[in-house]
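## Example record

The block below lists the input lines for one assembly entry, exactly as stored, with component labels intact.
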Amino acid sequence: MAGSHQITINGNSFLARRGELLLDAALSNGIDLPHDCRAGHCGTCCVRLVSGEVWGGEGSEPGIVHACQCRIVGDAVIERGQPSGVRTVEGVLSSLRPLSPEVMEVGIRTDRALPYRAGQYAQVRFSGYPSRPFSITHPLRGNPNSGSVWFHVRRMKDGRVTSSLGKRITPGHRVKLTGPYGSAHFRPNLGGRLILVATNTGFAPIWSIAVAALRENPERRMMIIAGGRTIESLYMGPALVRLGRFPNVLVVPVCSTPQTLTTAVKPGRPTDYLPRLLPTDVLYACGAPGMVDSIKSIAALIGAVCYSDPFLPTTDDTVEESVLTRAMGWLAVPTSRQMGQLALDRPPQPAGTADAGV
Ligand SMILES: Cc1cc2nc3c(=O)[nH]c(=O)nc-3n(C[C@H](O)[C@H](O)[C@H](O)COP(=O)(O)OP(=O)(O)OC[C@H]3O[C@@H](n4cnc5c(N)ncnc54)[C@H](O)[C@@H]3O)c2cc1C
Ligand code: FES
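Predicted structure tokens for the full assembly:
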């Protein structure tokens, strides 16, 4: 067929249209490729390009591409790797505690464990509401237990889901959690300095990553920059105090609206307080998409690894791609990958995050 190419995924071959997204081509040919955000952020759809070529969608490691972002431009052989371990668990809202005027700590007691890696997120579906992605975190008081999952949720004005928290969604409400998703998770055994940057509830995954990192090595060199628009939005104060007690942890709370309450909170934006970066640094940036993009660009300039989770609003409608996006796609050069360059990410580790004393 003119304008079509042979795609092989884990040994199953089909013909796909030139220019089609790999994910769409796979799904419409009956191949169930796991995916979530469809925006190139969560990493759920990452596959390995064994041979051939696709355009765009490069992942954070050589040879890995985001199936939701890359387009078919020739024959290609793809491997899916291990199943991602995504599962759905049922639960009930067990705890709802205001942390600031706009943020709630949400505890959900589940009927079975939801294993995850620090920094990952779940799709949360309160009964009667559409699902929303929220990052799994630790309770700010006490220790986690394997029967509950915790979130920091910012209530959005007019939000279909979050504005109902504490109103129509109250303790006892039934909920389904599906996950874990996301590739901005803690990687153990990295020797470099960790630089963790969050705005507002972006602190949820950052807190989880910080705890995992200190559990692995309480002497770890780490900097945590936590930002918010107002001083009230810095709901994570008690957690920052606990983190700041570790010998090699530097904590920088930042607030963009001028305030006179305390000099401990610095004026400005998180990017104003980044240290001079080294190529060996490992950065995590979570929260406002603009901040996350800036941190990624700064890290890229120096060649440091940066894992990120921009907290984008959910679009409930099917994402339609614009004519412009399609046109832009055809102006670029295809990416070729050869066997041998390639390595998929590690398999998920068991959940469970023994407290590091934080
Ligand atoms: C991977 C991932 C992880 C996330 N983790 C968390 C988390 O741990 N805690 C948390 O509070 N949020 C998190 N978010 C953001 C959260 O999923 C969205 O804010 C969600 O859309 C809120 O649902 P809602 O139904 O209340 O609002 P919606 O009905 O979806 O939106 C209501 C209005 O608010 C705007 N809006 C919604 N969310 C945002 C936003 N984040 N920034 C700017 N404007 C917005 C919408 O454009 C719309 O105008 C995460 C997002 C992603 C992609
Ligand atoms: S579905 Fe492709 S990165 Fe999320």
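The pocket of flavin-adenine dinucleotide (ligand 1) is lined by residues 121, 132-135, 151-154, 156, 158-163, 182, 201, 204, 309, 311-314 (CB under 6 Å). The chain has five helices and 18 strands.
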